[in-house]
Amino acid sequence: MIGDAVIVDLRTGPGFAHALASTLLNVRELLDEQWVVHAWVSADANLSRTVRQRLYKLSGLRHALRCANAGTCAALRLKRMTGENSRAWYNRLILKTDFWRSFSAPHVLLFELDTCLCPSPTWSLRHFVDEGYSYIGAPWHPRSVISPDDQRPDGAFHDGAFACVGNSGLSLWRRQDVLTLQPAASSDDFLEWRTVIADMWLSAQLQSKRWRGLGLRGVPNASEAARFAIETYGYRDTGVPVGVHLNALQRREPKRALLQAEHERMLVLKCPPVASVFYRWDETRHGSVGAAPENRG
């Protein structure tokens, strides 16, 4: 087994179940049998059943998965859990050793409700697995990166603690490399900062370990990361990414707008599942960075 693909989302309700089922369908259909898909969902008694029924109804995965029950199938595993439905809770979760030890494969693919995989990527997911990066996610546009003093860079991509790779909404991790960071993550010195932007903190730590010659591969540059996933970094028709994170509706700060409409139209032609993503994060409804909003973004 190459990897575990994981979504954690504790919302409930028919609309959410419908969107989750659609996202799971996309991911399960486009990953090969060497990947197990995990959905960690609310302990709501009806949610798992609702999602399973929707999965079967949408595209008849029952035969494709070779199992009678999506909740116990080796290819798709549903786990009920309790927790806070907030960005801070989710970030605390992915900083815990127990989370990463819940899986056995060497790689973990994290995905969220507003993501999709592309059917015919120019660079396959296996390509990025073989490259051996500790972490890879969609690169941020420099204007979307927030520094500790809330000053946003206005120039090109830069390196260091606020390097622009990358967003964990759709991201690939070497599980053992992340586990090496857990002792550092156990300190409370910067807990509040880490729970706001855990992916940026983990990326910076992985880069630091690499620079110190501790045997980690680190993260790729923004151009390479954009081949893996697109989010804030403008699509330039250089190929089809492995997937897309449609974190697209920040209306309060137009200068920080993410994937632009014309880029999204171009992507739809190359990656049709983009048009089928039900859920879109909206800062006016779900809050901004640091506000512990309903959705992590």
TrEMBL record:
It holds the Pfam family DUF5672. Residues 85-245 form the DUF5672 domain. InterPro entries: DUF5672. It comes from the Eukaryota. This is DUF5672 domain-containing protein. It comes from Emiliania huxleyi (strain CCMP1516).
